[in-house]
Amino acid sequence: MALQTRLVDYRDGIQRCAGYLAWDDDFSGPRPAVAIAHTWAGRSEFECDKARRLAALGYIGFAIDMYGEGRQGGSPAGNGALMQPLMNDRAALQRRIGAAITALRALPEVDAERVAAMGYCFGGLCVLDLARSNTEVRGVASFHGLFDPPGNTAGNPVAAKVLCLHGYDDPMAKPEALVKLGAELTAAGADWQIHAYGGTLHAFTRPDANDPAHGVRYSAAADRRSWRALEDFLEELFVG
Questions:
Q1: 3-state SS class at 11
Q2: What's the CATH code of the domain at 183?
């Protein structure tokens, strides 16, 4: 395997963004691609590692930049300061992630007809908004994401397939939120799946998550199961 990586500059209007691209050059020709939306902390080594894991499976992995300039918060207060403007303006959030998908589809390594997106925590909300705004992706996968509807997509059809991988005991999106999301996606005509992992809190894919008093804890079992579910989902999207 010959793993290759590079930074890709792209823009959302005047905002410069920096995505991290990973691919295996043992595979020839354009291939399916997956955008990876980051947690509230900003694009980090965690998301870049996921891009490399996807590249090892034969896909293009693209860890996107929702904050611009590759910015990271560095602390809960800093993370919140970067995230909140996009949470307050979901149309702007949708434009920002749409710009990443447009940039990804334009890359010569990428089969523009076979693109998907996945995201973690805040990034899970971002990819759900991507589907809600009917951007051209084949599917989206949310890992311990947030489900709050944006308020500007009601009545839109959802053409992308949707996979949500979620801790049943996640205090940031409780079981009733799962039910509401299922009803929303059903009304939108989506092909959707929700996998809920029992005894599992928020941030279950992050080995550094260890604060159960605040609802955050790593789960090796849920991490392993959710990645396998993602692999099956991507195969369905891109191979059929």
A1: strand
A2: 3.40.50.1820
